[in-house]
Amino acid sequence: MNLIEFARLMPKAELHVHLEGSIRPLTVLELARRNGIALPVQDEAGLQEFYRFRDFDHFVNTYFTITGCLRTPEDYRLIAYEFGAGNARQNIRYAEVTFTIETNMRLTGLSWQAILAGLNAGREQARREFGVDWRWVFDIVRDLPKTQDKVLDIALAAREQGVVALGLGGSEAEYPPNLFVAVFERARAAGMPRVPHAGETAGPESIRDAITLLCADRIGHGVRCIEDPALMDLLRERQIPLEICPTSNVRLGVYPDYAAHPLRRLWDAGLVVTVNSDDPPMFGTDLNAEYRALVEHFGFSAEELERISLNGVRASLLPQAEKDRLEAEFRAEFTRLEDAL
Q1: Alpha-carbon distances, residue 84 vs 19, 22, 51 (angstroms)
Q2: Could you give phi then psi for residue 93, rounded to 5 degrees?
Q3: How many CB atoms lie within 10 A of CB 59?
Q4: 285: which of 71, 247, 259, 263 fits an S-S bond (Cβ 3.0–4.6 Å)?
Q5: Given pLDDT bands bounded at 50, 70 and 90, which one contains residue 174?
Q6: Residues carrying an active site annotation
Q7: pLDDT per residue over 118-142, tens digit each?
């Protein structure tokens, strides 16, 4: 077995992946036909080209086109189940999955309870059939700041149904962290973890504000911290995990290629780095492809692959006993795989 095969087979955890951005093109076509939705393309080849990233506006348009194909609780069950099947194929044992609940409510007219019931039916089916599990991160869309309190209210009400954190996505530069201080403080006071996107399409100040103003427990992306050594020191001292998505960063033009991407430098500087796929089919990737990139473009060894995988477990929002159980399982599998290297 070579190192690429080792990376493919090893157990993994993923902390930054959007459910709506994980729907397979064939499933989008099926949902559109089922619900009478007119798509700009009519077959899988056309849809794959439609998915192909051109610029951020195209990405947003594609994202909303895909979300607009969802209409019923059964649709949500299907996409959650297929997400779980995809995780099983990649040996992803646990994930924390971002879902934009308010947008889906608005587009479908369904209640959050009906949507989440569908999602959790698919999650439970995947757990039974594949032995994979995940929790939900409900995120605020920055571009719709008037929805922020509603999203938090739903997230808090759904904590017993698998929601573990409040996220923040959307147009980072146009809607900075200071617009969301009150709602994130309310989340903190209620004991809900905060995992905002920051330092992707905006610079290091966005990350610093996410830490100081929003009391972030993890940072979605965070790669632009490389531009501010003092901020890197802060992240290292506080051991705040970064949810890094290398291929997403390259496809979105944050960096021109993997050679320019700072993941290796952040890792070598002692920051808590995790690796993630973001919106897999939209960026032509998945978590296995990201681990392959760790080997081919960032020079990761087997020992470093194991450490970054365990970072995903340790930076998760699971109770400590569940983290310990998963880590023990991961380590046992690493040992078996090492014997075949």
Answers
A1: 10, 11, 21
A2: -85, -30
A3: 19
A4: 247
A5: very high
A6: 200
A7: 999 999 999 999 999 999 999 999 9
The two tokens of residue 196 are 């905002």
Q: Whole-number mean pLDDT of the chain?
A: 95
State how far the Cα of 144 lies from the Cα of 115, in Å rounded to an integer: 20
Tokens 């039916």 label which residue?
121
Position 35 scores a pLDDT of 94
What domains lie within the chain, and their CATH numbers? 3-338 (3.20.20.140)
Assign 3-class secondary structure to the chain.
Answer: CCHHHHHHHCCEEEEEEECHHHCCHHHHHHHHHHHCCCCCCCCHHHHHHHHCCCCHHHHHHHHHHHHCCCCCHHHHHHHHHHHHHHHHHCCEEEEEEEECHHHHHHHHCCCHHHHHHHHHHHHHHHHHHHCCEEEEEEEEECCCHHHHHHHHHHHHHCHHHCEEEEEEECCCCCCCHHHHHHHHHHHHHCCCCEEEEECCCCCHHHHHHHHHCCCCCCEEECHHHHHCHHHHHHHHHHCCCEEECHHHHHHCCCCCCHHHCCHHHHHHCCCCEEECCECHHHCCCCHHHHHHHHHHCCCCCHHHHHHHHHHHHHCCCCCHHHHHHHHHHHHHHHHHHHCCC
φ/ψ of 321, rounded to 5, equals -60, -40
Q: Does 56 have pLDDT greater than 90?
A: no
